[in-house]
Amino acid sequence: MTGIRHTVETAESSLPEGAICLGTKEDIEKLGFKVLKFGTESEDAIALKTLGDKLLIVGSNPRSALFAAYRYLELLGANWLWPGEDGEILPKIDNAKVDSLDLEERASYAHRGVCIEGAVTPEVVVEFVDWMAKKRMNEFFLQFKTSRFFYNRYYARRYNPSAKSSPEITVDESLKSDAKVIEELKKRGMIVERVGHGWTCEAIGIEGLGWEVEKKPISEDQRALLALVKGRRELFGGIAVNTELCYSNAKAFESLVNHVVQYAIDHPEVDMLHFWLSDGMNNHCECESCKKLSPSDWYVKLVNAVSSRLGEVGCKTKVVFLCYANTLWAPEKEKVDDHYKNTVFMFAPISRCYFHPLGDERCSSPEPLKPMPRNEIVPPRTNREFVQLLKGWQKILQSDSFLFDYHFWSRFGLDFLGGDIEKVLWNDLRDLNKLGFNGFLSCQTLRSFYPTGIPMAILAETLWNNCTSIEKIRERYLKAAFGKDAPFISGYLEKIYSFVDSEKNYSHLDAIKGLVSNKVQELLEFVKESRPRLERMARDLKGNACEKSAFYLLHHNEYVSLVLEAFAYYLKGEREKALKSIDNAINFLLSTEEDIFKVADVYIMSNELNELSSRIRLG
Ligand SMILES: [Zn+2]
Ligand SMILES: [Zn+2]
Fold first, then answer.
1. How far, in Å, from the CA of 300 to the mean position of ligand 1?
2. For residues 53 and 31, what is the distance between their CA atoms, to the nearest angstrom?
3. Distance, CA 364 to ligand 2 centroid (Å)?
4. Model confidence pLDDT, tens digit, residues 223-266
5. What spacing in Å lies between the alpha carbon of 234 and ligand 1's midpoint?
6. For residue 52, with 0-12 CB atoms within 10 Å meaning exposed, 13-18 middle and 19 or more buried, which class applies?
7. Interface TM-score (ipTM) > 0.95
8. Under CATH, domain 111-480 is a member of which superfamily?
9. How does pLDDT run across 93-116, given as a tens digit for each residue?
10. CA distances (Å), 379 to each of 184, 281, 351, in order?
11. What ligand has the least distance to the C-alpha of 291?
């Protein structure tokens, strides 16, 4: 940023004059300085301190030392709007400020992570991990034993027939890509999380690396271990990872426990191993012996078996288990024993409402929440009910825990129709302590910086410091990306993202049912009128990241116009024209995927638009 070349050397006992010294708390203490009150090997904290003519950049552990260095660059004006060099802003400055710095920060939450979803390439993942470190996030989760499913989703491009597809990669190739991601995580001292679903079938020799329908026949020995559902033991819906086992069958129970334990022992690079059951629902075994316990009771028995076996053999891997689908209701008899302090509970309210924060009690259903019979679960859609389920689990466990949530998954594809997701996310992150969580793992596409990276900045910055105001995060981002046009863009985005008024939407009308004709027309005109100014900005703004920021907004302006046009036709009763406009919006996204590849997951967005089409078609 200054253009000055500095000499880099390792200090042994004393520091040269005018040195900028970077290291861990332990390193710095060896040199005789005590600067960081907070933080331990596992707890992230940083300090930037001027001492005489020297500047100390200190972290509580190696990754925090890296966070501290990025924090320093941030104070000098650096910004990372989205992953990769083209999202980086490094302003030219004459001198790097080293005097009168006195800053100490400690992460508000221990778990600040992201879980792979969407259609992504290994290169996207590597760049994303680098962005995370720059934004002081510390955990990354690669789903399944290898994340091939997500890579191949992009390579095959079945969602985008107009694009050139690439050959799908094999399991071996995919494992190599994962290894590269893990290497990048380790290089930065970040925490590696892995697997999740897939154990139930892998444990009995059936591949479980994605949600594909299993084509190979299963053996009779395997069949005997599967859950009995509606009188049959078979793969649930034909999909292996959606299938449960007959847990009262000792062979099934032991096979599963042994398989997970062995994997943990064989993979010391995995710090947190997600031990989830199937990704199906209402698919638990209905045999007489299994029926004696609820799905959650069986699950806790399995979790206790895995975690105690790992503790006994001295394996340091943490076991992550979850409240989700079949296990929404807490166990009735079992308790999580956490004898070796190696379990982590995660709460995954996948069908929750995103118009309102999770802790918003007004977001509720008129139907009281009550336990549902085995295999007849209908998950809640409102947040008060989810919090009740959470409290049920919290009564029977002492484990460390985090919220696993989906703000940037299908909700990302809904864009402005999904309400003000920035605000909901910010509130959710601030409420984590109150809800009893020690952090957050965002299950999301990694191409999630469209039309701006503000929501992702909110994710990272609020997890680091839950007292940061949303206005401050927005303002800093907008200023870096759009300079003097920042106030205009701020108002422009606010108008678009207040299209759905969540305050007035406790009856939870969806994007179509809640449409109001004059509001659609008004926003459509506003979006079109704003276009010339966006075009001017795209011409005038200099610097790669700023030019691209303006381009992404222009692109988004076109996209929003097409969706609003569809609604305008729909409200006039011209359904065919409405469907045509949605098609135009889909084609616009698909045909320009390369232009917005880095920031927008067109796979997820086109899925949501297709869904919208079906709803319009059905009236
Ligand atoms: Zn059974
Ligand atoms: Zn709600």
1. 16
2. 15
3. 7
4. 999 999 999 999 999 999 999 999 999 999 999 999 999 999 99
5. 12
6. exposed
7. yes
8. Glycosidases (3.20.20.80)
9. 998 888 899 999 999 999 999 999
10. 38, 10, 7
11. 1
